[in-house]
Amino acid sequence: MYALVDCDHFFASCERVFRPDLARRPVAVLSNQDGCVIARSPEVKALGVKMGAPFFMCRPQLESARAAVFSANFQLYADLSARLMGALRSFSRRVEVYSIDEAFLDVTHISSAERVSFARALRAQLWRELGIPVSVGIGETMTLAKLAARSAKRTPEGVWMIDGPIERELALRQTPLDEIWGIGPRWAKALARQGIDDAWALVHASALQRSPLNRCGRQTVDELAGQVRFTLQTAPQPRKSARVSRTFGEQVFDEGALCEAMSHFASKLGARLRRHQLTTTTLLVSLEATQAQARPQPGRRPPRAHFRLSVPLSSRTADSSTLIEGTLSATHALYQRWREARREAPFELGGWRKGGVLALDLSPQARAPLELFAPSASRVTLSALEDQLNQRFGRQTAQLGATPKSVTPRPQGAWRARSAYRSPRYTSAWGELLTIDIDRVYRPRGA
């Protein structure tokens, strides 16, 4: 038996943890650049605001409802997620972190009669310790647990269990194809053409009707029927690549500003590789520029022209200075391509809107072979010292000279992402810790 713990409107719930005054107010969280809505509290859903709705279109509606709007604060969300996943490990020895707000637990060791009370106790403890509301679905397979969590969100109790043929049939008959974990809209359309409308019909369909499905899809059907095909992956899967990318706050035309942004991304990528004890031999530098439309479509962003360049490194490394050197050489070459393209057709290409650095061919640092042209010991020591200082005193306390100097928590620059409504990083930045006026909270008797 498996239990799926699914956080309710997670990003919005994280914003409420340190703001009790928002308990009953509508809360919406925006994407990078404050472009669209990516998280909604139940009150925002009741307003009719759709997931992914452009902020400029729903802003009057949110303002009239006195909704609290926040820019995405992923550093805060990731920290609260890590705390929540750590708390879940006290309930089960086998936990698979499926996403930032979902985790599967093995509950086979708990008797059938006690599983619902176990789920209630889990919800109560997570709420008491973290202030995050969760829904818990329990099923014979991971796919059925996912369906049970979907039903749990619709109940005041927040718990649902599918542990028998009657409960399974009821859940499958109420589940559309496009809401089945692992099916998705594309397969749902193909199956609908075969006369399959819901999960119950899919389980009882013939092999010919299921022909659009691949091997993973057929395993999902077996899971819906109560046959275990997927098991918990408690050990993290080895990373094959790592990426740091960002959409710029404004169009960037200046090469210096572009290099500043890309060196910042490369430095962050190096720190990430060292944190996970990984090394790379190849970088893929990518840039996107706005592209003119023959017929502009209102409400849709203009298309973008993509520029990419692969950079082989001289040795396997995670050293930030080496990554920055490779990134800047590729950035300069791509900038020249963009200039030539604009010279030939000046009205077809606009400025840069997005950039990123992707590290490929990753391998654990402990397994990296000794190389003749590996970075010098001084560079490795410098990177380690940089990580130690940033870990102790906060991000961007120490950084290489090629990266932009930061004297504030969020340095200014045309390429910086817009986040006009970002909340403080209460748990991971010394300068943004929650402060309490003790004189207002506590007053001695007779004062």
Can you give a write-up of this model?
With 447 residues, the protein is of the alpha+beta class. It has 3 domains: 2-161, Reverse transcriptase/Diguanylate cyclase domain (Alpha-Beta Plaits, 2-Layer Sandwich); 164-224, DNA polymerase, domain 1 (Orthogonal Bundle); 242-393, Dna Ligase, domain 1 (2-Layer Sandwich), CATH 3.30.1490.100. It is globular. Helix 11 (255-275) runs antiparallel to helix 12 (320-344). The chain has a 5-stranded mixed beta sheet with strand order 5-6-1-7-8. Strands 9, 10, 11, 12 and 13 form a 5-stranded antiparallel beta sheet that branches. Mean pLDDT is 87; it is low at 405-412. The protein contains 14 helices and 13 strands.
What class do helices, strands and sheet pairing give? alpha+beta
* Domain tally: 3
The quaternary structure here is single chain
Straight-line distance between termini = 58 Å
Uncertain stretches: 405-412
- Order of strands side by side in the largest beta sheet? 5-6-1-7-8
| Count of individual beta strands | 13
Number of helices: 14
For the CA atoms, what is the radius of gyration? 25 Å
Q: How much helix is in the residues? A: 25-40%
Instruction: Give the CATH topology of the largest domain.
Output: Alpha-Beta Plaits
Q: CATH first level of the largest domain: which class?
A: Alpha Beta
Structural descriptors:
single chain, 447 residues, alpha+beta, Alpha-Beta Plaits, Dna Ligase, domain 1, 3 domains, 5-stranded mixed beta sheet, 13 strands, globular
Strand and helix layout:
Blueprint: E1 2-7, H1 10-17, E2 27-30, E3 37-40, H2 42-46, H3 55-64, E4 68-71, H4 74-88, E5 95-99, E6 102-106, H5 115-130, E7 134-139, H6 142-152, E8 159-162, H7 165-173, H8 184-192, H9 199-203, H10 215-224, E9 242-252, H11 255-275, E10 278-291, E11 304-317, H12 320-344, E12 349-360, E13 363-364, H13 377-393, H14 438-441
